Amino acid sequence: MKEINRLGLQVAGITAVVLAVLFGLYWGGRALFFKDKEAPGPGTSQEEQLAQQQKDSDGDGVADLFETVYYKTDPNNSDTDGDGTSDLDEIVAGRDPTIAGPNDESKPATGSQVTEAKTFTQRYLASLPDDVAKADILDQAKLEAFVEANKGALLPMVDTIQTTEEKGEKAVAAYLDSISSVHNDALKEITSADIEAAFRLYVNDQNKQPMTDIVAALTNNVTTLTAIAAPAEVVETHTKLVAASQALRDNADLLSRVDQDFVGALIAAQNIEDLGTVFQQLADEVKALEGKYGLE
């Protein structure tokens, strides 16, 4: 019995939950644009995280992720357009490093020039002045303020929770088993490492399938958790678990569309980090249930 419920605690902390390791992706997102030596990395592997985020294969002072995701420059060629001016110098000057010549002043439309604002990135660009310098588009303070203002509600409303009239130790033990991927084959264990690895494959290798698979697995987890009947004393906990799982799925989906909505991916990464607090609360609540019935 103790082993079963310890696994139940694991699922509250891991299976339907990604811990706050992905905080680094928020700053890592900025590293897609800038080789920011001050960007903090998640967990205990800070130096390794920074090394990956700041990798600069051609030594031009522009991180590979910045080159491949935003400007579509060649991370292995310091002068993508071959005009004699390095990619970094052109970016700093507000020019397009993929167009040869000194007069390539093109930049994304900003302010009133933005005709469509369906994505967070479009909304962010629309919030800037029409004549903002290209080098100022990715201003750290502006990005942080926009992300904070547009995160929205962390947890969605959960319309219906299945309940059971069963109660007591047996009912709680059965519930903990039902939310454990070890005992419930319908649940797939997804860790923060899985999501981070899939995200890196997408950004670095343009391989989206791992992120697509993770979103599909999280969607299935939400469906499975929603169908589980919760004893009365765990209804509040289960409601929070379903809501957090939905939020995780929705933000992982937004993260998976980084190529279409980079600023939206920043918001998703920040929301995933914020969900870490909710998931820790869930783990604490499960631990309290285990202690109440001697199921540790």
Count of runs of 4 or more consecutive helical residues: 12
Low-confidence stretches: 1-44
* Estimated helix fraction: 40-55%
- Total strands: 2
Helix vs. strand class: mainly alpha
Rounded average pLDDT: 77
Q: Beta-strand level of the residues, as a percent range?
A: under 5%
Taking all Cα atoms into account, the compactness measure Rg is 22 Å
What separation lies between the terminal Cα atoms? 8 Å
| Sequence of secondary-structure elements | HHHHHHHEHHHEHH
Sheet with most strands:
2 strands, parallel
Sum up the overall morphology in one term. elongated
Can you list the strand order of the major beta sheet? 1-2
Compact summary:
This protein is mainly alpha-helical and 296 residues long. The chain is built from twelve helices and two strands. Among the domains are: 2-27 and 152-293, no CATH class; 108-137, no CATH class.
Question: What does this protein look like?
Answer:
The protein is mostly helical. Among the domains are: 2-27 and 152-293, no CATH class; 108-137, no CATH class. 54% of the residues lie in helices and 1% in strands. It has a two-stranded parallel sheet with strand order 1-2. It is elongated and about 75 Å long. Mean pLDDT is 77; it is low at 1-44.
Task: Describe the protein's topology.
Layout: H1 2-15, H2 23-31, H3 46-53, H4 64-71, H5 87-92, H6 120-126, H7 140-150, E1 163-164, H8 169-178, H9 192-205, H10 209-227, E2 230-231, H11 235-255, H12 262-293
Parallel strand pairs: 1-2
